[in-house]
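User: Okay, second chain of the day. Same drill as before: sequence in, structure tokens out.
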Amino acid sequence: MPGITREEVAHLARLARLELKPEELDHFAAQLDDIIGAVARVSEVADQDVPPTSHPLPLTNVMRQDEVRPSLTPEQALSGAPAQEQQRFKVPQILGED
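Assistant: Same drill. Structure tokens below.
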């Protein structure tokens, strides 16, 4: 596969509205060529028998059953609050919103 040319890099830069110096064109051409080569190598390894995955190991969520257990009443939870309103902690306004 032929390497990416500096003219192609210049064209891509124009499309992306990037201003590149002449020495940057050669530098990025070499880097992009390396990236394209790496992607091509990965494509060669991929096999039809291997399904695409987002993670190499199967993931499952470990969730417990949702069950009601004894807890504090709203009055008990708010008993030590310096200020409360409508069964909620009342705090100073910080964002200037109503």
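Helices lie at 6-15, 22-45, 74-78.

User: Thanks, on to the next one.
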